[in-house]
Amino acid sequence: MERYIEWVIKRPKITLLCFTIITVIFSLGLPKLVFDYSIDTMMPQGDEEYIYYKKALKVYGNISKIVMIDVYSDNLWSNDVFMDIDNLISEIEEFKFLDKELEDSRITRLENAFSKGEIKYIDLLDYFNNDIVFQKTLRRKIKKYIGRVEILDQNDLNKLLKEIEITNSIKAKERVKRIASLFTMQDVTGENDTLEFYDLIKRDDNGKRILPKSKEEYEFIKKRITKTPFYEQQIYARDPKTGEITDLGIIIQLDTTDDHHDIGEEIWEITSNYDNIRVVSLGAPVMNYLVNGYMQDDLKKFLPAVLILMLMVFFFNFRSLRGVVLPLLTLIISDIWLLGFMGHAGYKITIMAVGLPSLLMAIGSSYSIHIMNQYYIDFNLITEKGRHEGFKQAMHHISITVLLAGLTTFFGFVTITTNKVTAISEWAFLASLGAVICVIISITLIPAVCVLLPHKMPRFMLNKDKSVKVTLIDKITSLMTVISTKHYKACLIVVIIIISISIVGMTKMKVEMSPWGFFKEDSYIRIADRIIGKRFGGSFPVNILIDTGEEDGIKKPEFLKKVDEFCKWLQSESNVDLNIGRANSFQDIVKKMHMAMNNDKIQYYKIPEKYVDVLDYFELASGEDSNSDGRIDEFEIFTCPEFRTIHVFSLMFDKKNKVLSTSEMDRILKRIRAHMKTEFSDYSYRITGDIPIFIRLAEYVVTGQVLSLILCIIVVGIIIVLLFKKISIGLIGLVPMSCAVIMNFGIMGWFGIDLDMATAIIASITIGIGVDDTIHFFNTIKHMLAQGYNIDESIGKTLAIAGKAIIFTSMALVLGFAVFLLSTFKPNMYFGILIAITMIATTIGALVVLPSVIKATKASLEESKSESIIWKYLYIGRLFGVKVED
């Protein structure tokens, strides 16, 4: 380390040039960053539950990540409203396949519209009156990317062409596989002893839907969809008081790829740009898009806020231009390096990673403050020894301390990589890498710049007689010295009482991975979930697969009746605690076919008694089989090609207007399984989809929390022992951090804050960052003891020197994490509150509790005199210059 510091001080210009080049290289990775909230960024790819879920998608299509759309209006059954719904669906239908010829002609016409260089906005829309779908596309693209303008010019055309090209590339992916709605679904007729599927709303020879116009035609449509119970809560919803149809539903089934961010964005934009209808859309793809937007907003709020707060801390601490600019510069460069690396390496910004830049600034500020503080402490030394020699001596000791602090933080974060939740383990790797980056930049950039700048002390630090002022922080450290040396017993009694109360609170903690719990009560996602839940049964599927064990097994009437009764049981009022809003399966299609073959009489909307009748219906049924797998497209979502396994497609929402917690979802699935164990004892069955995966994630969070915490404590404890060559130092060093962790869990338990992905890592972060203060304390007090001071004098001088820097770094950490309170996500808000509290706790622990424990135990801080093989090869303190000679 001494050689490195010497190299930096002798060659500051070369050092800064190298840093500039590296920063430019990493900055090129920033545009490559991608936001992703999807469950695939969280779930371990090798998990059995996840693998089964992926296999189910290949058989039944995307049965989990659907989009539910609720359309309603005060004048629902009118031509204007039906035209808007038709246009909305037509826009979405264009993502089923790309009509290259049509899109090329649209682009050509758009370029022609700008033949005079510019065009009025209203004239541009009129130019495409014969292509309403593209007109709608232009309207939403202009609104989002150009804004309200009366006249568009060539620059606007270029923007439009770029965005339309992006949209066409999404259309080419054919993300949309199926759209279920009044405008797209088929009913079945049994005329002429043949089951034929026909469009609920007919099309003309050009494939355009023929919309109803007269009151009689609307009444005919109503009768057509209400004659079959199958359609209620699927493509329409009634007012529970009047029985009138008030809403029309649209269900979009997407392809089975993992990333639906692009199509989710397009669907959201489409559904948000209609005037005559009110549209509520939700489902995993839309939710992921909205959350990605929230994460970007959080990042935009976090970075300026944390920079302003760090600026305030630096100014309050140093009151000099270099004392503000240099630490701030190290934070900005650290973020550029880490985010640039993420962009180049393909790491996505998940709900966990969105806080990394702020975390890095908080950590980096700690290191920068210690180095700048040491510069001013050794100001006279640098003056006496000369710039190069003085800087070398001043920076050597503090650089070692910062390096050790960074090392323990690095290992503290590395232990979290053992967590099986992908988003958490990735976060841990990136955070540990970020800690290394912060150390490198802090111990390099600040000395390199300072050695080039004029050597002078800030005026605010000096009295009129040029002596150093006594500040408020100095008075605080003096008070801490009194407490830890004179009242250490009372201090430890207070700590024991707090820990006891916290342990009781720990027993009240709950684990939560429910997606609904991430958002505030008045958020769009929570409101939309309630609306769609009440009208269409929910937007989050629970996928139940029942295997008969034989080909064509699901066609047997006795089995179909069991499934029918099961679906009724799921939805019944007596089972409201199951929170299943709707459950449909293949038996509903069989009932629909049976009714059609019996002149649409409602009493025949049931499972036929004879097996041969069901077989006949399958023989008679005719419909499109787009993938030629032996299943009519209408059947694909409900059965496998061998007609062996049936899929019960059910939707969940909280019927009591409360957040469905992970534990509640787990209880629901256990109750469903217990019922199926009785009713389907002769068959095998399994529940899959996002809900079981959220439950599995909760299990991973708990086991990962326990494992990473244990590892973190062991690793950090061992590092402290090996650094200071004293087992007792390692044990004592863990006291303040362990107390802070227990207090954190106690607060969570007492205040009902759930253990989730964000809060699960607080304990390890507390130890990983909190150990920095412990390292600073031990390294400084050993230095003082080696100078011949007694224990009380050493504690006093340690608090006066290291304590001042520790308090300022604590301020930086607390304020840095406090910006999480600005987050849209409740877990991140709680994370910010809790980590800020624990940072205060670790600081008090290092400056008051730690010296109190040393006083109470009369522990010797002298390194072991043992010459055993263990110390000979594993004493790493000598490598970092921890050993201080008299």
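The record above closes out task 2.4. Task 2.5 opens with a second protein, given below.
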Amino acid sequence: MSPTSADLLRHLGAGASITSMCEQIGWTRQQFDDWWRTELAARQPQVDGTIRVSGPGPVEIARDRWGIPHVSASSDDALFFGFGFVMAQDRLWQMDYLRRRAHGRLAEILGPDGLSLDVVARTVGIPRIAREHVARLPRETLRLLEQFSDGVNAGIAHRRDRLPIEFALLDYAPEPWSPLDSMAILGEFRWYLTGRLFVIALPELAKRTLQDETLYRAFLMAEAGDEPIVPPGSYAAARRTVEPFAASAGGSEQGGSNNWAVTGARSVTGSPLLASDPHIAFGTTGCWYEAGLSGGSFDVAGMAYVGVPAIVIGRNPRVAWGITNNICSQRDLYQERTDAGHPGCFLYDGAWEPAREIVEEIRVKGGETVRRVVRFSRNGPIVDELLPEPARHTGPVAMRWMGAEPCDELTSALRANRAATAAEFREALREWRCPTWSFVFADVDGHVGYQCVGRIPIRENWDRGYRPGWDPAHQWRACIPYDEMPAVFDPASGWVRSANNLTAPRDYPYPLSNTSSSGHRALRIRQMLQAQARFDVEDFQRMQLDTLSLRAVEARGPLLALLDAALAASDQAGGDPAATARLRWAADALRAWDCRMEPDAAGAAVFEVFFARWSHAVAGERFTEPAATAVAGAIGGLALSLLAADPGGWFTRRSRVAAALDALRDTVETLVARCGPDPSAWTWGCVHRLTLRHVLSDRGDLGLLLDRGGVPVRGSGVTVCNTGYDPNYMASIGANYRMIADLASTPPALWAIDAAGVSGDPGSPHYCDQLPEWLEGRYHQLTVGRDARREPASRVVLEVSA
């Protein structure tokens, strides 16, 4: 009997190779490809005509040439119902994946491959926290969330016989959507942005390993670490008030984002201009969902976070805004003290307190249910298993995290979506607690501002390592009040900007617990903002695509001097002439380079591969494996400084010159392995390539069917055109969405570009269709309001069934 299409899809999803499947059923590869395309085509959502639904209505969904939807309705309820429906049309499987990740239920569909992420979610308590947050939602927010959920469920029902192909590959169907699912997704996003336990665990590991305060401070050094977001003099010099904090119930940052804005006096149109490009993982389907919403009390367009019904980055007719992650710590790790004489207890203030325990049961597809006991001290869950492997063996470590406290950023975002002025926008964010974000905003009246949001615990003794869990002095008792948070309004300079850099100067009256790793992007944005008098949309587009590496500008002089000394030592020692010639070619490529990370630049390839190898050499001087590898990507500031000199005596096992020579040899070996033996092929585009990977990419041959890209890409992790992280030749994180708003535009509009596309369906023409435009910097226009419905590429109307 011939296998059915359902059988074939299950085999593919289970990891069977295309070749083996073709051999078993007697197909050619062409026949397989034809079948695959037919399966994809049969699963497309309806985007034209009329669809009868049970819900508030009617709703009109008009799509532009990129498939980006503009949802219109006569009421808030109908609008959010339509928002849920259209998001399910485009992103249903991604939504299901994200809610399973948030609830700790990926192993149910992925088997053991999903277990590690499930353990994270259950240990942190994301589903438990989400239930608590749903119970606290204001009535209006809950109602809109319920309407969104009803819309998602209507979308599921309408596609029941043609679900996205991932459901067939993994052989399951989606469960009904609920407000809890959206809140869990929001909680997991909160964790993604602010959890990052390595930021505390690796410095603790360094403190224990180095046993020297001078070396430890060198380890913590940031690149361009004195480039603050808010300028000196924009805040009171002395601390004024604190916000009491409720009692608890029980390396460097990576990644980033850019945003900036100029006042009308600095723009060609006479009205403010604003730019935002959040940096997050690249993929065939981004975490952002671009849409316009018009109806009831909403008239807004921009990007929502998938599964959550609010525009996070965008504009309405009067206000525009953008975000970056503010790198101020919202979590602490506590070393807990135990004693064999008091089993199951943790010490606090001289007394032994019983641990609290809950049992989490994780169902695993094709295997037995896994039971995990999550223990809690008064500081929070014990998170040893979530720490980087080298830091997992120091005894119990508990975590306190602001995201577990009462949070309701959804209500804040919905209020911000409807703000009519910059002042209203800032007020809408007052109750935002987690994550800490840096908003820039502007309005049609000409106002421009910056606001740091989220609550930051006031730590009198701020240190990046663990805190003693038994000491009451280290408990959270107060946080910085909203009105005291770093902010700028209508600056005299005519501009504001942030790029995950230092939030405020060192004399800011509150301890901000900043863990920023680099100010180079912020410095470069400031340079460009100060380089000309006025800007237009095209200027901001060029700024977002700027590839000048200030890390390289700072490093090149001392690096070349160091390499010249290393090459002289190599000549003196003798060796293979061909190998020596390659080393000199690499040094010459650095010498001729303009420090721009362009695909055809040889110096860019040599520099970033060398810097990765050099960072590992620096780490290896004081750490053994696997700790050296773990910390190598988090010591950019130290590695950069050691190119010029080593006044603190970091190098002891070998000389700095010998380490540089070894790193250069490793660089050449890496470039030969990646690009071939001919140095003329050693370009940044050879080593720095962007592949949009599907989350199922590693299962058998699914990457061949679902991935896109694999193309050279400009920029790096420290350029404004952000396309990487340390080591920077790995282009897996970056500015996958870029947006610009001109507050003078009529009708109100955005200029934007997405690295992937609006659809997560591999058979859709809008699956990764914007990648060529993104690579070349060709933006589309997204109109705000009902004018967006003019001459759509497709239109569907949701009519209420009787």
